[in-house]
Design brief:
- Its EC number is 5.4.3.8.
- Pathway: Porphyrin-containing compound metabolism; protoporphyrin-IX biosynthesis; 5-aminolevulinate from L-glutamyl-tRNA(Glu): step 2/2.
- By secondary structure, the protein is an alpha/beta fold.
- Helix content is 37%, strand content 14%.
- It has 3 domains: 39 residues, no CATH class; 260 residues, Type I PLP-dependent aspartate aminotransferase-like (Major domain) (Aspartate Aminotransferase, domain 2); 75 residues, no CATH class.
- The chain is built from 15 helices and 15 strands.
- Helix 2 runs antiparallel to helix 11, helix 3 packs parallel to helix 11 and helix 14 packs across helix 15.
- It starts with 6 loop residues before the first helix and ends with a helix.
- The structure holds pyridoxal-5'-phosphate.
Length: 443
């Protein structure tokens, strides 16, 4: 025991004063059962809990910890920034540098505004899209999660999927009416909706590659990727495309998923296209609360104070957060993406081998370095497929992995996250636990 208070005691105390004992639903282990370990420290690919256990981490704080935990350069940058002041509520140099980094790295982003979470980023992007078009309707896809924005909770992924919720109570009928939910990847459904209601639609919002119902690779048809199809369909009707790269940004590839299916990417031919607005979070904050939305300069110019779209934040562009984000992006060079790609591929192979040997039906899907494991044989093309997996097999697998010292996302609907700290030795530790976990899943 390193701490004097166990996770069990902390969880029961937490439940007295915090709803369900957690500040974000999936953390409660509601769908897999059991007490969540309360984490006390982390370094590299390893986590430590209040009970003295060590785990190999495959959650990475749901994406931000792409260089591993407590990375020396990131911690030093935050420490140095903290010594200069925690928050100014006024312009500071770090926010300029972070915005420049994103604008330089992500082609469609001409201007960027920093916020404090991915939720704020998508919420603000919707507002800009509605203002720009003078229209109300937003199109989203079932199983895509864009944060807990009222208008975007219908048939959302992530925790909404984990707990099999249709959406959320507390969202007004008027708000829900302005959101149309379509099956992911269904071009005919998109075309039919635009044929009928095209002139009412402000924007389509999509995860650049869905990762919150597990990872779904955007489908190609006749050499045209799904995102390009969405961009062309939206534009033909005077609507916008918002590409949510909160999760995929700076992770799926150096240029996010746009670096994989955008013009100029390896193997991509044909027309130039770009989302009008993009949203980011997670990696660009390096573990501190940061989100961002950006895109075409004419659209971003609609924001106050120059334009009529109000959007603001007491802590937006916070100096500690921008220091962490900048240090993280500085660590993400070509060599870092090589390591991430290799760790991701090795882990996929190890998991596939273990599950195949144990006779567990599964399919592994990827979007660049991002991947997830579905406990069903057939490919997962959308939310209905994702929901049709054997979540009980996942639960047995999850607990066996945890017992063996590997911390997976506590839900069958989430991506698995590696970092540059997932060295071959760390992957060996995971490999040693996989046979027992696969056998547990097979029971
Ligand atoms: N968009 C996507 C694609 C996400 O994966 C998430 C969070 O997981 C969000 C938006 C919301 O981000 P946040 O949790 O920072 O509000």
């Amino acid at each position: 025991m390193t701490g004097t208070i166990s996770s069990t005691d902390l969880f029961s105390r937490a439940q007295q004063v915090i709803p369900s004992g957690v500040n974000s639903p999936v953390r409660a282990f509601g769908s897999v059962g059991g007490t969540p370990p309360f984490l006390t420290s982390a370094k590299g690919a390893l986590l430590h809990d209040a009970d003295g256990n060590e785990y190999v981490d495959l959650v990475g704080s749901w994406g931000p910890m792409i260089l591993g935990h407590a990375h020396d350069a990131v911690v030093e940058a935050v420490r140095e920034a903290a010594g200069r002041g925690l928050s100014f509520g006024a312009p500071q140099p770090g926010e300029v540098s972070l915005a420049e980094e994103v604008v330089h790295r992500i082609r469609p982003v001409e201007q960027l505004r920093l916020v404090n979470s991915g939720t704020e980023a998508t919420m603000s992007a919707l507002r800009v899209a509605r203002a720009a078009t003078g229209r109300d309707v937003i199109v989203k896809f079932a199983g895509c999660y864009h944060g807990h924005v009222d208008a975007l909770l219908a048939e959302a992924g992530s925790g909404v999927a984990t707990f099999a919720m249709p959406g959320s109570a507390g969202v007004t009928a008027a708000t829900a009416r302005d959101t149309v939910v379509l099956p992911y990847g269904d071009r005919a459904a998109v075309q039919a909706l635009f044929a009928e209601r095209g002139s009412e639609i402000a924007a389509i919002i999509t995860e650049a590659a869905p990762a919150n119902m597990g990872v779904v690779t955007p489908p190609e048809q006749d050499g045209i990727g799904f995102n390009r199809f969405l961009s062309e369909t939206a534009h033909a009707a005077g609507a916008l495309l918002i590409s949510d790269e909160v999760l995929t940004g700076f992770r799926a590839s150096a240029e996010g998923y746009y670096g994989i299916d955008g013009p100029g990417a390896a193997g991509v031919t044909g027309a130039d296209w770009a989302p009008d607005l993009m949203t980011f979070g997670k990696v660009i904050g390096g573990g501190l609360p940061v989100g961002a939305f950006g895109g075409r300069e004419d659209l971003m110019g609609l924001l106050a104070p120059a334009g009529p779209v109000y959007q603001a934040g007491t802590l937006s562009g916070n100096p500690l957060a921008t220091a962490a984000g900048l240090a993280t992006l500085a660590g993400l060079d070509a060599a870092a993406y090589e390591i991430l790609g290799s760790a991701s591929r090795t882990l996929q192979q190890l998991v596939a081998d273990a599950l195949t040997t144990a006779g567990v039906p599964h399919t592994i899907q990827r979007a660049g370095t991002l991947f997830s494991v579905f406990f069903r044989e057939e490919p997962v093309l959308g939310y209905q497929d994702a929901k049709a997996q054997d979540t009980e097999a996942f639960t047995r697998f999850f607990h066996a992995m945890l017992e063996g010292g590997v911390y997976l996302p506590p839900s069958a609907f989430e991506a698995w996250f590696v970092s540059t700290a997932h060295t071959p030795e760390v992957l060996d530790r995971i490999a040693s636990v996989l046979p027992a976990a696969a056998a547990a899943a097979a029971r």
